[in-house]
Specification:
Length: 174
């Protein structure tokens, strides 16, 4: 899972899904490098809508968008490049795990929670931007979810204090 958030854990500023208005160029560079190395990228429909203009489906990894209404996106569907599904996280992973080894999850709070509850996230790449937001969406949706995370690496991305934290998720010790 790859995410960026404010110091107080918000992944959006208010209800604006366009994170590029407030994230650093260093985070964007790190993010796009990770996407280039991925075989598959999974995201929710709100994330897809917010980054749609930055996606070139003819290059890069296979992209799968989770939505309650896959038929709504029939005109955007490109087999093996950009697809839309209403399947659950376990169904998705079971279907694609033999074909794709390096899978990135770019969810919003709802999608992140679904994958975390299913114990399908191994690592979390979390960029913390030195900002505080009074309102915005959370990294995970409101739930009783509790997962221990082991810090693997900290990297300072710029002089203003943007940090990349890499965690290994440990589901056994909860």
């Amino acid at each position: 899972m790859v995410m960026v958030n404010s110091i107080n854990g918000k992944i959006t500023f208010d209800n604006d899904p366009n994170i590029y208005k407030w994230t650093s160029s260093e985070d964007s560079q790190m993010f796009f490098n990770m996407v280039k190395k991925a075989d598959m990228v999974i995201m929710g429909s709100l994330t897809y809508q917010s980054i749609r203009s930055k996606i070139n489906p003819s290059i890069g990894p296979f992209r799968l968008v989770i939505t309650h209404h896959p038929k709504k996106y029939i005109n955007n569907y490109i087999p093996d490049r950009l697809e839309f599904t209403a399947n659950t996280p376990p169904q998705i992973i079971n279907k694609y795990k033999s074909k794709y080894k390096n899978i990135l999850l770019l969810g919003g709070g709802e999608i992140n929670s679904l994958f975390l509850k299913s114990k399908l996230v191994d690592e979390l790449y979390l960029t913390i931007e030195p900002l505080l937001f009074g309102s915005g969406k959370n990294l995970i949706a409101k739930s009783d979810l509790k997962i221990n995370c082991n810090l693997l690496k900290i990297k300072k991305l710029n002089k203003k204090g943007t940090l990349l934290l890499i965690y290994k998720l440990n589901y056994e010790k909860n």
